Amino acid sequence: MILCMPTLNKLIQDFLQYSEVERNLSQGTVKMYHMYLTKFSEFAHKHVNKGELSEKDIDKELVGVYRVYLNRKPSDTNPNETLSKATQNCFLIALRSFLKYVAVQRDLKTLEPNKVGLAKTGDRLPKFLTQEEMDRIFSLQNVSKKSGVRDRSILELLYSTGMRVSELVSLNVLDISNEVLENREFSIIGKGRKARTVYLNDAAVHWLKRYLALRKDSFKPLFVRYSGKSMRPDDASGETLRLTPRSVQRMVKKYALKAGIAKQVTPHVLRHSFATHILRKGGDIRSVQELLGHSNISTTQIYTHLTNKDLKETHKKFHSRPSGDKDLTGSIV
């Protein structure tokens, strides 16, 4: 009896299903794995140049030329630049996870995951806005319009909670009850399906109340669009009106440009600003780790490079030198 061995593409599909069902990874993570591994499969089929591939075709030589390909690949956002080292590593980490699944879960002989080297990346400090820049952004919404009140609510909520944009757009009206507004806290399911509590400041509560008071519909999504394509006739819950991460990114960028801010401002920059401002005002790193939903403290520690205001004073106090040289008599020369 001849056993039918799974093809590379079939193994990738099985891995994606395993990641979603058994590992309980988020839809967003599974979607990204799908994209990265599809790119790898397309490259592998062209390079190996034969019909169907299997896990045995993944070897050090194939991975080596794949890394060269990624290093030379133009960026999707800027064709004049190549993929960043961090983006290259996203492709390679997905491949590592897939190889681990093939070896451990399927017990098939393939390249060891640790043989897939990652690109070396330098320390990258997160971008953040000053308090004055945040205030300028907050002042620009036309709050005589529903869309303006909605936008202000989104900005205040992002800054108050440090939420990821994917977490924000998945919120429903029922998530922000009167009890939530009174207690100023609620739970969300974040990255890796981990639950955490986020907190509302006075401004976020105020603008959420104003926005919800304007909502006369019974639609499910918390944040809906007021322009663009019409909702589907069969969509009683208003799901087709839900704002997407991309639409929130465009909105944040629009207000940053209006505010005259030269930095590339995204919802994630507001998340960085949230963390940086808390630490600069004396918050401790462990608390910020919990607020951001980071699994590992090392992920949060990058913010300490931005927030230790005492280092300059310490250096000046304990490591100063006079501006001139002294001769043997003690006179400055």
What does this structure look like?
By secondary structure, this protein is mainly alpha-helical. The chain has two domains: 8-115, Orthogonal Bundle (DNA polymerase, domain 1), CATH 1.10.150; 131-310, Intergrase catalytic core (hpI Integrase, Chain A). It contains 15 helices and two strands. It has a two-stranded antiparallel sheet. Helix 1 packs antiparallel against helix 2 (27-48), helix 6 packs antiparallel against helix 9 (202-214) and helix 6 (146-161) crosses helix 11 (267-280). The longest helix has 22 residues, at 27-48. The chain is globular. The model has no long low-confidence stretch (mean pLDDT 88).
Q: Which features does this protein show?
A:
globular; single chain; 333 residues; hpI Integrase, Chain A; mainly alpha; 15 helices; DNA polymerase, domain 1
- Please give the CATH class of the largest domain: Mainly Alpha
Poorly predicted spans = none
> How many domains is the backbone divided into?
2
Q: Kindly report the name of the CATH homologous superfamily of the largest domain.
A: Intergrase catalytic core
Q: What share of the residues lie within helices?
A: 40-55%
Per the principal axes of the C-alpha atoms, what is the gross shape?
Answer: globular
Elements, N to C (H/E): HHHHHHHHEEHHHHHHH
**What's the count of strands?**
2
- In terms of structural class, how would the helical and strand content be classed? mainly alpha
Strand order of the largest sheet: 1-2
Summed up, the helix count is: 15
Instruction: Please outline the major beta sheet.
Output: 2 strands, antiparallel
CATH architecture designation of the largest domain: Orthogonal Bundle
What is the strand content?
Answer: under 5%
The CATH topology of the largest domain is what?
A: hpI Integrase, Chain A
What is the averaged pLDDT score?
88
